[in-house]
Design brief:
363 residues, alpha/beta, Spore Coat Polysaccharide Biosynthesis Protein SpsA, Chain A, 2 domains, 7-stranded mixed sheet, 13 helices, 7 strands, elongated
Amino acid sequence: MLDLAIILPTLNERDNVAPLVERLDTALAGLRWEAIFVDDNSADGTADAVRKLAHVEPRVRVIQRFGRRGLASAAIEGMCATTAPFVAVMDADHQHDPALLRAMLEAVREGHADVAVASRFAEGGTADGLDGEGRQRASGFANALARRITGTELTDPMSGFFLLRTDLVRALTPRLSGVGFKILLDILATAPAALRVQEFPLQFAERRSGESKLDRAVAFEFLVGIYDRLFGRLIPTRFALFGTVGAAGVLVHMAVLAALFRIAGEGFAFSQAIAVLFAMSFNFWLNNWLTYRDQRLKGAGAVFKGWLSFCVTCSIGALANVAVATLLEARGSHWVLAAMIGILLGSVWNYALSSRFVWGRFR
Protein backbone atom coordinates (compact mmCIF):
# COMPACT_ATOMS: atom_id res chain seq x y z
CA MET A 1 0.00 0.00 0.00
CA LEU A 2 1.28 3.44 -0.90
CA ASP A 3 2.02 6.15 1.65
CA LEU A 4 2.34 9.14 -0.64
CA ALA A 5 1.93 10.22 -4.26
CA ILE A 6 3.88 13.17 -5.66
CA ILE A 7 2.21 14.96 -8.56
CA LEU A 8 4.60 16.71 -10.93
CA PRO A 9 3.07 18.85 -13.71
CA THR A 10 5.62 19.20 -16.50
CA LEU A 11 6.22 21.18 -19.66
CA ASN A 12 9.49 20.58 -21.53
CA GLU A 13 11.38 19.22 -18.52
CA ARG A 14 12.92 16.05 -19.94
CA ASP A 15 16.33 16.63 -18.37
CA ASN A 16 14.81 17.16 -14.92
CA VAL A 17 13.00 13.84 -14.69
CA ALA A 18 15.72 11.33 -13.74
CA PRO A 19 17.61 13.64 -11.31
CA LEU A 20 14.36 14.53 -9.53
CA VAL A 21 13.39 10.88 -9.08
CA GLU A 22 16.82 10.27 -7.55
CA ARG A 23 16.21 13.13 -5.10
CA LEU A 24 12.78 11.72 -4.22
CA ASP A 25 14.29 8.29 -3.61
CA THR A 26 16.78 9.79 -1.18
CA ALA A 27 14.31 12.06 0.59
CA LEU A 28 11.59 9.39 0.98
CA ALA A 29 13.74 6.38 1.88
CA GLY A 30 11.64 3.88 3.84
CA LEU A 31 8.32 5.25 2.57
CA ARG A 32 6.13 3.73 -0.12
CA TRP A 33 5.65 6.41 -2.75
CA GLU A 34 4.95 7.02 -6.40
CA ALA A 35 5.69 9.95 -8.69
CA ILE A 36 3.07 10.87 -11.28
CA PHE A 37 4.30 13.20 -13.99
CA VAL A 38 1.40 15.01 -15.68
CA ASP A 39 2.84 16.23 -18.97
CA ASP A 40 1.15 18.69 -21.31
CA ASN A 41 2.49 16.95 -24.42
CA SER A 42 5.93 18.54 -24.14
CA ALA A 43 7.77 19.06 -27.42
CA ASP A 44 11.06 17.91 -25.88
CA GLY A 45 9.83 14.36 -25.19
CA THR A 46 9.34 14.67 -21.44
CA ALA A 47 6.60 12.01 -21.43
CA ASP A 48 8.82 9.55 -23.32
CA ALA A 49 11.63 10.19 -20.84
CA VAL A 50 9.31 9.31 -17.97
CA ARG A 51 8.12 6.16 -19.74
CA LYS A 52 11.71 5.09 -20.36
CA LEU A 53 12.55 5.61 -16.70
CA ALA A 54 9.44 3.68 -15.65
CA HIS A 55 10.89 0.52 -17.22
CA VAL A 56 13.49 0.41 -14.46
CA GLU A 57 11.67 2.45 -11.79
CA PRO A 58 8.12 1.12 -11.22
CA ARG A 59 7.28 3.95 -8.80
CA VAL A 60 7.19 6.37 -11.74
CA ARG A 61 4.40 6.87 -14.27
CA VAL A 62 3.14 9.55 -16.64
CA ILE A 63 -0.16 11.06 -17.73
CA GLN A 64 0.36 12.65 -21.14
CA ARG A 65 -2.31 15.20 -21.98
CA PHE A 66 -3.31 16.24 -25.49
CA GLY A 67 -5.29 19.30 -26.49
CA ARG A 68 -5.31 20.88 -23.06
CA ARG A 69 -2.81 22.68 -20.89
CA GLY A 70 -2.56 24.34 -17.51
CA LEU A 71 -0.87 23.64 -14.22
CA ALA A 72 -4.03 23.69 -12.11
CA SER A 73 -5.93 21.18 -14.22
CA ALA A 74 -2.81 18.98 -14.50
CA ALA A 75 -2.47 18.90 -10.72
CA ILE A 76 -6.13 17.97 -10.31
CA GLU A 77 -5.88 15.11 -12.81
CA GLY A 78 -2.77 13.77 -11.15
CA MET A 79 -4.17 13.98 -7.62
CA CYS A 80 -7.28 12.05 -8.66
CA ALA A 81 -5.22 9.34 -10.38
CA THR A 82 -3.55 7.83 -7.32
CA THR A 83 -4.59 5.33 -4.66
CA ALA A 84 -2.21 6.82 -2.11
CA PRO A 85 -3.95 8.27 0.98
CA PHE A 86 -1.80 11.41 0.85
CA VAL A 87 -0.79 13.47 -2.15
CA ALA A 88 1.73 16.24 -2.72
CA VAL A 89 2.06 18.67 -5.61
CA MET A 90 5.43 20.14 -6.49
CA ASP A 91 7.36 21.48 -9.48
CA ALA A 92 9.66 19.22 -11.47
CA ASP A 93 12.29 21.91 -12.10
CA HIS A 94 14.13 21.35 -8.78
CA GLN A 95 13.07 24.67 -7.29
CA HIS A 96 11.10 22.74 -4.66
CA ASP A 97 13.14 20.68 -2.18
CA PRO A 98 11.88 17.07 -1.84
CA ALA A 99 13.55 16.88 1.57
CA LEU A 100 10.55 18.74 3.02
CA LEU A 101 8.09 16.03 2.01
CA ARG A 102 8.71 13.73 4.97
CA ALA A 103 7.97 16.41 7.58
CA MET A 104 4.98 17.68 5.58
CA LEU A 105 3.55 14.17 5.39
CA GLU A 106 4.00 13.65 9.10
CA ALA A 107 2.15 16.87 9.94
CA VAL A 108 -0.91 15.91 7.88
CA ARG A 109 -0.87 12.21 8.77
CA GLU A 110 -0.72 12.99 12.50
CA GLY A 111 -3.63 15.42 12.19
CA HIS A 112 -1.71 18.57 13.01
CA ALA A 113 -2.89 20.18 9.77
CA ASP A 114 -5.23 19.61 6.83
CA VAL A 115 -2.70 21.04 4.39
CA ALA A 116 1.06 21.30 4.68
CA VAL A 117 2.49 24.15 2.61
CA ALA A 118 6.12 24.81 1.72
CA SER A 119 6.47 28.57 2.06
CA ARG A 120 9.07 30.83 0.50
CA PHE A 121 8.14 33.61 2.93
CA ALA A 122 7.93 31.74 6.24
CA GLU A 123 10.72 32.38 8.71
CA GLY A 124 13.76 30.49 7.46
CA GLY A 125 12.54 30.35 3.85
CA THR A 126 13.80 32.31 0.86
CA ALA A 127 12.43 33.35 -2.53
CA ASP A 128 15.85 33.74 -4.12
CA GLY A 129 14.88 31.46 -6.99
CA LEU A 130 12.33 33.96 -8.31
CA ASP A 131 13.61 35.75 -11.38
CA GLY A 132 14.30 39.28 -10.18
CA GLU A 133 12.84 41.73 -7.72
CA GLY A 134 9.83 42.41 -9.95
CA ARG A 135 8.73 38.78 -9.73
CA GLN A 136 9.20 38.81 -5.97
CA ARG A 137 7.10 41.96 -5.56
CA ALA A 138 4.40 40.56 -7.83
CA SER A 139 4.36 37.34 -5.80
CA GLY A 140 4.00 39.33 -2.59
CA PHE A 141 1.05 41.28 -3.99
CA ALA A 142 -0.61 38.07 -5.21
CA ASN A 143 -0.17 36.49 -1.79
CA ALA A 144 -1.81 39.45 -0.04
CA LEU A 145 -4.80 39.31 -2.40
CA ALA A 146 -5.06 35.53 -2.09
CA ARG A 147 -5.20 35.75 1.70
CA ARG A 148 -8.24 38.01 1.42
CA ILE A 149 -9.96 35.61 -0.97
CA THR A 150 -9.32 32.42 1.01
CA GLY A 151 -9.63 33.83 4.52
CA THR A 152 -6.60 31.75 5.46
CA GLU A 153 -3.58 33.30 7.11
CA LEU A 154 -0.60 32.09 5.14
CA THR A 155 2.70 33.64 4.30
CA ASP A 156 2.64 32.00 0.86
CA PRO A 157 -0.87 31.04 -0.35
CA MET A 158 0.49 31.08 -3.91
CA SER A 159 2.91 28.27 -3.17
CA GLY A 160 2.99 25.48 -5.73
CA PHE A 161 4.36 22.97 -3.20
CA PHE A 162 1.86 21.47 -0.76
CA LEU A 163 0.56 18.18 0.66
CA LEU A 164 -2.86 17.02 1.85
CA ARG A 165 -5.16 14.00 2.15
CA THR A 166 -6.26 12.53 -1.15
CA ASP A 167 -9.85 12.04 0.01
CA LEU A 168 -10.06 15.78 0.73
CA VAL A 169 -8.99 16.55 -2.83
CA ARG A 170 -11.54 14.14 -4.27
CA ALA A 171 -14.31 15.69 -2.18
CA LEU A 172 -13.43 19.18 -3.40
CA THR A 173 -12.67 18.32 -7.04
CA PRO A 174 -16.25 18.71 -8.40
CA ARG A 175 -16.19 22.31 -7.21
CA LEU A 176 -12.63 23.17 -8.20
CA SER A 177 -12.41 25.47 -11.20
CA GLY A 178 -9.11 24.22 -12.59
CA VAL A 179 -8.61 27.77 -13.83
CA GLY A 180 -5.57 29.82 -13.00
CA PHE A 181 -2.01 29.02 -12.19
CA LYS A 182 -2.08 28.10 -8.51
CA ILE A 183 -4.20 25.12 -7.50
CA LEU A 184 -3.61 25.70 -3.77
CA LEU A 185 -5.56 28.97 -3.97
CA ASP A 186 -8.44 27.09 -5.60
CA ILE A 187 -8.44 24.40 -2.90
CA LEU A 188 -8.33 26.85 0.01
CA ALA A 189 -11.10 29.01 -1.47
CA THR A 190 -13.33 26.04 -2.34
CA ALA A 191 -13.24 24.25 1.02
CA PRO A 192 -16.55 24.80 2.85
CA ALA A 193 -14.70 25.44 6.11
CA ALA A 194 -11.29 27.01 6.65
CA LEU A 195 -8.57 24.38 6.38
CA ARG A 196 -5.90 24.08 9.03
CA VAL A 197 -2.57 24.85 7.45
CA GLN A 198 0.98 24.28 8.64
CA GLU A 199 3.84 25.98 6.81
CA PHE A 200 7.35 24.71 6.27
CA PRO A 201 10.16 27.11 5.28
CA LEU A 202 11.23 26.55 1.68
CA GLN A 203 14.58 27.52 0.22
CA PHE A 204 13.28 28.31 -3.24
CA ALA A 205 16.10 27.27 -5.56
CA GLU A 206 17.12 28.17 -9.08
CA ARG A 207 15.56 26.19 -11.90
CA ARG A 208 17.81 23.28 -12.84
CA SER A 209 16.70 22.83 -16.46
CA GLY A 210 13.74 23.25 -18.79
CA GLU A 211 11.44 26.19 -19.36
CA SER A 212 9.44 28.05 -16.78
CA LYS A 213 5.70 27.41 -16.72
CA LEU A 214 5.36 31.12 -15.97
CA ASP A 215 5.26 33.85 -18.56
CA ARG A 216 4.05 37.43 -18.84
CA ALA A 217 0.45 36.24 -18.84
CA VAL A 218 0.67 34.65 -15.39
CA ALA A 219 -0.32 37.82 -13.52
CA PHE A 220 -3.39 37.99 -15.73
CA GLU A 221 -4.11 34.30 -15.16
CA PHE A 222 -3.91 34.83 -11.41
CA LEU A 223 -6.63 37.47 -11.74
CA VAL A 224 -8.59 35.03 -13.88
CA GLY A 225 -8.46 32.54 -11.04
CA ILE A 226 -9.71 35.18 -8.62
CA TYR A 227 -12.53 36.12 -11.00
CA ASP A 228 -13.53 32.49 -11.51
CA ARG A 229 -13.60 31.92 -7.78
CA LEU A 230 -15.85 34.93 -7.18
CA PHE A 231 -18.05 35.21 -10.27
CA GLY A 232 -17.44 32.15 -12.46
CA ARG A 233 -20.82 30.61 -11.66
CA LEU A 234 -22.62 33.73 -12.83
CA ILE A 235 -20.74 34.43 -16.06
CA PRO A 236 -18.49 31.70 -17.53
CA THR A 237 -14.87 32.74 -17.12
CA ARG A 238 -13.86 32.07 -20.72
CA PHE A 239 -16.78 34.12 -22.02
CA ALA A 240 -15.92 36.97 -19.65
CA LEU A 241 -12.33 36.92 -20.90
CA PHE A 242 -13.46 36.84 -24.52
CA GLY A 243 -15.74 39.77 -23.81
CA THR A 244 -12.95 41.71 -22.11
CA VAL A 245 -10.68 41.16 -25.09
CA GLY A 246 -13.56 42.17 -27.35
CA ALA A 247 -13.95 45.40 -25.40
CA ALA A 248 -10.29 46.17 -26.02
CA GLY A 249 -10.88 45.31 -29.67
CA VAL A 250 -13.65 47.88 -29.77
CA LEU A 251 -11.12 50.58 -28.92
CA VAL A 252 -8.88 49.39 -31.75
CA HIS A 253 -11.88 49.24 -34.09
CA MET A 254 -13.07 52.75 -33.26
CA ALA A 255 -9.56 54.20 -33.51
CA VAL A 256 -9.05 52.77 -37.01
CA LEU A 257 -12.56 53.77 -38.07
CA ALA A 258 -12.09 57.31 -36.84
CA ALA A 259 -8.72 57.59 -38.55
CA LEU A 260 -10.08 56.44 -41.92
CA PHE A 261 -13.60 57.88 -41.88
CA ARG A 262 -13.23 61.13 -39.97
CA ILE A 263 -9.61 62.04 -40.66
CA ALA A 264 -8.72 60.46 -44.02
CA GLY A 265 -12.21 61.01 -45.44
CA GLU A 266 -12.71 57.47 -46.72
CA GLY A 267 -16.19 56.05 -47.21
CA PHE A 268 -17.91 54.61 -44.16
CA ALA A 269 -18.34 51.07 -45.57
CA PHE A 270 -14.66 50.85 -46.57
CA SER A 271 -13.53 52.31 -43.24
CA GLN A 272 -15.76 49.95 -41.26
CA ALA A 273 -14.46 46.92 -43.18
CA ILE A 274 -10.81 47.83 -42.56
CA ALA A 275 -11.55 48.54 -38.91
CA VAL A 276 -13.19 45.10 -38.58
CA LEU A 277 -10.08 43.41 -40.03
CA PHE A 278 -7.78 45.29 -37.67
CA ALA A 279 -9.99 44.51 -34.68
CA MET A 280 -10.26 40.81 -35.60
CA SER A 281 -6.48 40.53 -35.89
CA PHE A 282 -6.00 42.26 -32.55
CA ASN A 283 -8.65 40.09 -30.88
CA PHE A 284 -7.09 36.91 -32.25
CA TRP A 285 -3.66 37.85 -30.90
CA LEU A 286 -4.92 38.80 -27.45
CA ASN A 287 -7.28 35.82 -27.16
CA ASN A 288 -4.47 33.47 -28.15
CA TRP A 289 -2.20 35.02 -25.52
CA LEU A 290 -4.71 35.30 -22.67
CA THR A 291 -8.19 33.83 -23.12
CA TYR A 292 -6.97 30.54 -24.58
CA ARG A 293 -3.60 30.53 -22.87
CA ASP A 294 -4.02 26.85 -21.95
CA GLN A 295 -4.58 26.02 -25.65
CA ARG A 296 -2.28 28.66 -27.09
CA LEU A 297 -1.22 28.30 -30.72
CA LYS A 298 2.54 28.52 -31.12
CA GLY A 299 4.85 28.74 -34.09
CA ALA A 300 4.46 30.90 -37.18
CA GLY A 301 2.54 28.24 -39.12
CA ALA A 302 0.08 27.42 -36.34
CA VAL A 303 -0.48 31.09 -35.52
CA PHE A 304 -1.10 31.99 -39.17
CA LYS A 305 -3.54 29.10 -39.61
CA GLY A 306 -5.23 30.07 -36.35
CA TRP A 307 -5.53 33.69 -37.46
CA LEU A 308 -6.95 32.60 -40.82
CA SER A 309 -9.42 30.25 -39.13
CA PHE A 310 -10.41 33.02 -36.73
CA CYS A 311 -11.07 35.40 -39.61
CA VAL A 312 -13.04 32.77 -41.54
CA THR A 313 -15.16 31.68 -38.58
CA CYS A 314 -15.81 35.31 -37.72
CA SER A 315 -16.48 36.34 -41.32
CA ILE A 316 -20.25 35.99 -41.13
CA GLY A 317 -20.31 37.98 -37.92
CA ALA A 318 -18.03 40.52 -39.57
CA LEU A 319 -20.26 40.78 -42.65
CA ALA A 320 -23.31 41.23 -40.45
CA ASN A 321 -21.37 43.81 -38.46
CA VAL A 322 -20.47 45.85 -41.54
CA ALA A 323 -23.90 45.48 -43.20
CA VAL A 324 -25.94 46.47 -40.18
CA ALA A 325 -23.62 49.31 -39.19
CA THR A 326 -23.59 50.68 -42.73
CA LEU A 327 -27.37 50.48 -43.00
CA LEU A 328 -27.88 52.27 -39.69
CA GLU A 329 -25.37 54.99 -40.59
CA ALA A 330 -26.99 55.50 -43.99
CA ARG A 331 -30.39 55.90 -42.31
CA GLY A 332 -29.15 58.66 -40.09
CA SER A 333 -27.77 56.93 -37.01
CA HIS A 334 -24.65 58.46 -35.53
CA TRP A 335 -21.61 56.67 -36.88
CA VAL A 336 -20.41 55.69 -33.38
CA LEU A 337 -23.77 54.16 -32.46
CA ALA A 338 -23.99 52.37 -35.80
CA ALA A 339 -20.53 50.87 -35.36
CA MET A 340 -21.24 49.74 -31.78
CA ILE A 341 -24.44 47.97 -32.77
CA GLY A 342 -22.58 46.19 -35.57
CA ILE A 343 -19.87 45.08 -33.14
CA LEU A 344 -22.41 43.75 -30.64
CA LEU A 345 -24.24 41.77 -33.32
CA GLY A 346 -21.08 40.01 -34.46
CA SER A 347 -19.65 39.27 -31.00
CA VAL A 348 -21.88 36.30 -30.07
CA TRP A 349 -21.16 34.56 -33.35
CA ASN A 350 -17.44 35.18 -32.99
CA TYR A 351 -17.25 33.66 -29.52
CA ALA A 352 -19.27 30.55 -30.31
CA LEU A 353 -17.42 29.54 -33.46
CA SER A 354 -13.89 30.60 -32.56
CA SER A 355 -14.08 28.68 -29.28
CA ARG A 356 -15.00 25.56 -31.22
CA PHE A 357 -13.02 25.77 -34.43
CA VAL A 358 -9.91 27.86 -33.66
CA TRP A 359 -8.87 26.78 -30.16
CA GLY A 360 -11.21 23.82 -29.74
CA ARG A 361 -10.97 20.21 -30.83
CA PHE A 362 -11.73 21.01 -34.49
CA ARG A 363 -8.81 23.35 -35.03
